[in-house]
Design a protein that fits this description.
single chain; 6-stranded mixed β-sheet; 36% helix; alpha+beta; 5-stranded antiparallel β-sheet
Length: 429
Amino acid sequence: MDSIENKYLAFFKRNDISLDAKFLIGVSGGVDSMVCLDLARKNTKNISVAHINYKLRGKESERDEQITKEYCLKWDIPFYLQVSRIDKSKNIQLEARNIRYTFYEEMLKENGLDFIITAHHLNDNVETFFLNASRGSGINGLTGIPSIRKQIIRPLAKVSKNQITDYSTKNQLKFGEDSSNKTSDYNRNFLRNKVLPLLNDQFPNFFNKIDDTILNLKRDKTLLNELINKEINKVIHKKGNGYLINKNNTISTHTWFHFLKEFGFNYKQIINWVENDRQSGKTIFSEHYELSNDRTHWTLFPIDEEKHIEVKLKLNESIINPINLTCEITSLPSSFDKNIGYFDIEQLQFPLTVSKWKKGDKIHPLGMKGIKKISDILIDKKVSSHEKKDVWVIKSNDIIIWLVGFVVNENYKVTDKTNRCYKIKFNLR
């Protein structure tokens, strides 16, 4: 059996990560993280430590902070502490995790570090496998905890709990025991304390065999993703920071599920989406993406979190950003262009306001008797859901005089009685 030191070093070699990089070690003060810290100190040149005191376990929390701090003082290791109180009415484990990784990432950026090291080990991975299996998880959940995720690395992923405790004893490391781990109130603790020890007794080399199963599933997942991408690439086209997707009834719902879940959509959303494809104009959202159904295709783009932009436009002033407009007083037009708006200057009140249209906006379209919603005009013009986000309006005294590139307001048009004409040209980039 490889020693814990060899497995630790093999991780860096296997993943081509230099031991000269700058590492932030997440340390709770428990045996796993203290062993991880000790291995990092002995085998890497530049390490820092991040510790969070959640104030959940009274004297135990203070003890774990002190153990971690003392180790860092002894070996002259930079020590970053955050004290956070968790709302116990919420999911404590989830809240703690969010606080933990937010703090780690902040320390990484503030101190110019390269990687976050956490002490997740082989047994943690097996526990996660069984937890997710009990929830009916698909292949993603059954592939366990990733050994690398962006800048988070887990060099103890192939190290067993027994190896960790043996190393701790051999090196006389001080660590804190979390008394809550001895109870089986949480599902993970129940698996750890009650179920997995029985399986380990019954089946030789149990944890390593489950780890082999997880590895095989990861290989299957890679192959599955390759096949899905091969199928999806036939109908998907990159556009800017998103995609246009041709509608194709030959692609199975499950294939769409595996593709769209990578953008944060859940199973129910995707099933309803694919099975109700005829609902033109429909849009669904994940945390960071929106999927819209236009007449001929779907559009998949990141959610636009841009703040409301509003620019004042003085008389005869031209602008380049956020939209390129050239403005001038001119003679009456002899021809018309959709990207040029002509207005009776006597009807305008300066400065004009330039902004993107928003839901509920209305205009009195040129040649029509009444007002009309801009959303309806864009539908009539067959503007896609994503293209609608880049449509601008120009207002005079808070009244829309031009839906840029589409419609001029009837009440501001030039007539045979117009003495001075104001020309606004929309210059396409």
